[in-house]
Amino acid sequence: LEPKLQELRIINEMCITIGLCLLTAGTFIGAIWANESWGRYWGWDPKETWALITMIVYALVLHARLVKRFRTMLAFSVLSVYALSSVLMTYFGVNYYLAGLHSYGSTEAPVAVHLLIGLYGVITVIAVRACFKRGTQKPD
Question: How many Cβ atoms sit within 10 Å of the Cβ of residue 125?
């Protein structure tokens, strides 16, 4: 089981690395497009700001492996799952809760947003349980 988990971690890390590169490139290309369209590169619109936050979050996940405490497979997995929440906020949160150039502004968010919040609550409980279970196991 351990080699399969290690393989999944490597795949996850490669996907996050590629995704971060593409997100960064997309943000820069979007800034160039915004300059051509609106005459400014960056306007601190909620969507632009959350795209930057998502870039920073994923950069932190990739760089967390350099900190000794976060080198474990469990820490990387939990951090990568929580990093996905920044992408979900960029899409759902900005589009349905915040006002700006990129929002669709509705008075009521779709049911999926509330389900995602509940799902992240369940993930938090599972992550805390896994950390405590791992901490109470006796080394071999």
Answer: 10
Contact present, 100 and 50 (Cβ < 8 Å): no
pLDDT in tens, 87-138: 888 887 777 776 666 555 555 666 777 787 888 889 889 888 888 877 655 4
The ranges assigned to domains in the chain are 2-136
Number of H helices, E strands in the chain: 5, 0
| C-alpha to C-alpha distances, 132 to 2, 126, 127, 136, nearest whole angstrom | 19, 10, 9, 6
Residues in CB range of 61: below 8 A, 6 or more apart? 16, 76, 79, 80, 83
